[in-house]
Amino acid sequence: MRHEVIVVGAGGGGAILGLALALQGVHVCVVERELTLPNPSRVETIQPNGQQILHRLGLLDALGAEAVQPVRRFDFIQIDGPRLCSVDYGMLPPPWNQALVAQSNKVHQLILDRLSAQPTAELLRGLEFQGLIQRHGSISGVVVRRRDQKEAVEIEASLVVGADGATSLVRQALGLPAKLHRYRHGYLIAQLPRPSGMDRARYYVGQGELLGLFPSPEDRLVALYMIEASGVNDFKARGLDSFKQRLAAIDPAMRIPLESLTAWEQVGFLPAFRVRAERWVTDGAVVIGDAAHAMNPHASQGRMQAMMDAMVLADVIMKCRNTRDWSAMALSEYESARRPQVTMLQALADEQTIFWNASDPLRCYLRNRVFRGMERNARLRYQALTATAGLRTTPPLTWLDKLMAVGLLPDPHANEVPPL
Q: Rounded to an integer, what distance in angstroms lies between the CA atom of residue 140 and that of residue 6?
């Protein structure tokens, strides 16, 4: 089989790249090891930058109430204490002035359906990546194998794209050095009935404890509770009732919805990774999304950044296609364009992890004081929001801003919302 581009991995970045290329007439093949969509209960937030991409691809208007739930306000609340800060997406310019909490599978199925409908696209499921085809010293495709068969299949292409996640086999086969970091904490995740009138997201922060409650489609909500990644089995051994009692103690409105949680099988676990690949491109190949730069979910941008990778890379591929130059130098335009925002978001997420996940009193005090300072300062609140929304490439807060947030310096522009 011969294609112009082969994409390994039909996740958030790979599927978007395949569709973006096919809409421009590129012959693209997307291969995926899974036969079905995993994690049917997974919910994620589509930030404004991701909404813009879905709109550009003609997908956003096709997402109905069964797939996405608009959310404007996110309240940050101290566990066993007061509300610290509220962030309102209404501060952003319309129409991108809300977050969309989405049923991941329904959104992703729409993308895959549109991809499969394109005449120049091929989506092949159940194929595992085995290695690269290299002829005359150049990468010319991939070797894949069906999970239930021994015989391998070669798929030739001018460009190989690795979109196969944080532990990317394509990245390893390309010999692209990368540092994979597993965060100490992960998240238990469950979908529950939504309490009446809950239209805001709630994010509870305590000493070594976090609980996120997010309205989701069809009168549901998703609960995210932070635990030690290495202690999942020990945590579950304490019993489901203990877990439910703790969540209800943090937010009493959850007591009745939690009655629907009757078995641990209804609760998933979301680990957190960070990947820092030294290079994202080489002659004839590229890595995107988590394969290049997985980040902590505190950034709320993991999938969004994979989607942005896909759109920028699609434009670069069109240039390479016209010149027939698939060298690392020609492809480097993609990496140069994307690295600044990715680097900023990874650093921001790590900073948030240090303070939001903190269990010691000092860091918790500083975190809460920053939240309270941002509640009083519209400028700082807006700058932080634009980073979460994926609308900026520079850090949202300077050191002076942080000193203003904790109240050590006055801010004469606290009520001024700066332009993007």
A: 10
Predicted local distance difference test score (pLDDT) of residue 42: 80
216 and 294 inside one domain: no
At 242, which amino acid appears?
A: S
- The pLDDT tens digits of the residues spanning 218-253 come to 999 999 999 999 999 999 999 999 999 999 999 999
- Whether 402 maps to a domain, the answer reads no
What pLDDT is stored for residue 135 in this prediction?
A: 87
Q: Where residue 149 falls among pLDDT bands split at 50, 70, 90?
A: confident
**Contact (CB, 8 A) for 10 and 304:** no
Query: Is 109 part of a structural domain of the chain?
Result: yes
CATH, residue 299: 3.50.50.60
CA distance 321 to 363: 51
Q: Domain end: 309, 326, 349, which one?
A: 349
Predicted local confidence at residue 25, as pLDDT: 97
Three-state DSSP state, 305: helix
CA distances from 316 to 22, 23, 59, 320 (A): 14, 15, 22, 6
Same domain, 129 and 258: no
Q: For the chain, how many structural domains are there in total?
A: 2
